[in-house]
Specification:
The protein is an all-alpha fold. It has five helices and no strands.
């Protein structure tokens, strides 16, 4: 019992002592840089090369929790900002699905009547 009390006293003393700088400082968190060839080099290289620095328009969008978690994890894994990822993805969607542009063109033609 005597040893337990003295151990508790030692812990209390350690907690009260000012920090002397002992111990290792925690490293700053930084995004992990994944080499493009480790993932899918074609799509990741395209996303990294995509320049959205001149984009000024803002759109408020909603995503489900799982998608947000996936996008944030993607950011940590690759260093690609979520804004760049979403901007690239929307542009890629319109480029690869021309029927979406057709729907927009038809709407514009019908509304000019």
């Amino acid at each position: 019992m005597e040893n337990m009390r003295s151990l508790a006293d030692q812990i209390r003393e350690e907690l009260v002592k000012p920090d002397t700088g002992k111990g290792k400082p925690k490293p700053a968190r930084s995004p992990l840089k994944v080499k493009p060839e480790q993932v899918r080099p074609d799509i990741l290289a395209e996303i990294l090369a995509y320049d959205n620095s001149d984009d000024k328009s803002m759109v408020h969008v909603r995503f489900d929790e799982r998608t947000v978690r996936t996008m944030n994890t993607f950011k940590l894994a690759t260093g690609v900002d979520v804004t760049r990822l979403v901007s690239f993805s929307v542009r890629r969607l319109f480029e690869t699905c021309p029927e979406l542009k057709t729907i927009i063109k038809q709407f514009i033609q019908n509304s000019d009547l």
